[in-house]
Amino acid sequence: MIVTMTGKRGRPTAEEREERHQRVLGVISRVIVEEGYGALSFDRVAGEARVAKRTLYSDFECRAGMLRAAVRRQHAYLDAAPGSAEDVLAAAIAVATSLLREEAVAFQRAVISAAPLHPQMATEFYASGPRAAQLFLAERMPHETAGEREDAAETLLSLMFGEYYRRRLIGITPAPTPEEIRMRAERAVRLALDGQPVASGRRQLVDAG
Amino acid sequence: MIVTMTGKRGRPTAEEREERHQRVLGVISRVIVEEGYGALSFDRVAGEARVAKRTLYSDFECRAGMLRAAVRRQHAYLDAAPGSAEDVLAAAIAVATSLLREEAVAFQRAVISAAPLHPQMATEFYASGPRAAQLFLAERMPHETAGEREDAAETLLSLMFGEYYRRRLIGITPAPTPEEIRMRAERAVRLALDGQPVASGRRQLVDAG
Hints:
The structure is a homodimer.
Chain A: H1 14-35, H2 42-49, H3 53-60, H4 63-74, H5 88-99, H6 102-114, H7 119-128, H8 130-138, H9 146-160, H10 162-169, H11 178-194, H12 204-207
């Protein structure tokens, strides 16, 4: 008996393709987090996600492509950016919400573990993950030059994550609540933009929301 | 034939004990970095460092004790603190110099990898490492209350390490030169103390050195 995903022979619908794609991304992430990048292979993902290997080759081309797609999914805000080009705080909250989730922290942990053996993987991860987040924030910074905007975005990320993120990586601090994320983001935006170490807003921009 | 460390029967000298202790700490660090905390055991360390197990039990009591001693060695500045209680910059440089070294980054990487399986180890690591560094810096902060001093120290660490440390952990940035460490520390101290995102000193304190 032949059973296809569509229940009949023929090309899957767009919805079926999307469902399959999300299932594949879930398998990729799980293999990386639970067993490490070294365990990731087309054979493994094809088997666990119940898709044809040629479909995977067509979607991802290579193992690094699977990694990039899994990282990209963690940074979904990159696609669903809010309209205002000036809302640094909203962008900071979006980034922190994505990257402080347990799944994203576990993924970062797996990348750190595998990095010494897979330096190219680490480079791909950085470009499609943290560096993309930095550029996303930099675009929304008020500074004049691109260099200043990137510096400010790096400062903002360091303040939002920093030592707190170290505690998340070694698992001694639980995932933050949305309220905690907002507070971290507000404090970091204030200091990065205005240079105010203590939480007492000087800008309307930051006080909004 | 019986061969003792001293070449004759009797208690080892203080110098011999110190040499042995450093050799043991080197073995502990290497096992953790190369094979993970799960591979660390008294049998393993006794064999590789050529010391009696009862000596190890006497020195470290338990496996966590071996970890603490290895972490503590990375933070040697805690013992050799400079005299001035106000020299935040010198303290920041000492912390950054210790923790950005390749050995310390590799150690942190190993702790992150092992943390999900060994949560108690992660807690011990944090207390004897990063948290000790934070308190060391907090003692030198000019703020009035202990809470403010600890907050300022956490901000300083986040700015000095932050996203840069993420790049160190995934191995895409080489170990910094002493000059790069000084620049990172100066910039972080300025922003943490004075709230100046750009490098233009306002305080004598920071400009000194």
